[in-house]
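Example 3.2
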Amino acid sequence: MAADPFARLADRQQSLRTALRALQTAGPGSPDFPTLLTTTNDHVQAVMQARKDVEAARLTVPNRAIAAATTAAAFVVAIGWFDAWSLLSLLAAVATAAAVLVDPTGPRLWEPRARTTAITAALAATLLTPIASGWATLVTLAGIAWWAWRTLK
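Structure, written as tokens:
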């Protein structure tokens, strides 16, 4: 079994192709068809998990980097342009960054990209805070809503 997520995905895809060929050769009337169908389903699930692992491997470092940048930018903005209304935007951004720093990929299939969108929205809101004041919170909330919608879908 390959340790690299990309190699593991290639192995799982090849296994799925082999299972699909066997399923196609057997046909629906074959006595082995239910067993082959179950095996093919297991291979499909393995490919889906391998794709999630590849996506997670690809987005872990960028998600953590964006989350760290968001946290740093929030502290700079809080010190440089402090007012109570802007604090709402900064707190939402830091909370989103903390969630992404703790677990940058998440357990579900589409969650790594959803987290990337949420943390990018939080960074944009943090950078917009000096200009838009607390209204920048809406950008963070839109990113969080996208994250929730993609993961609970």
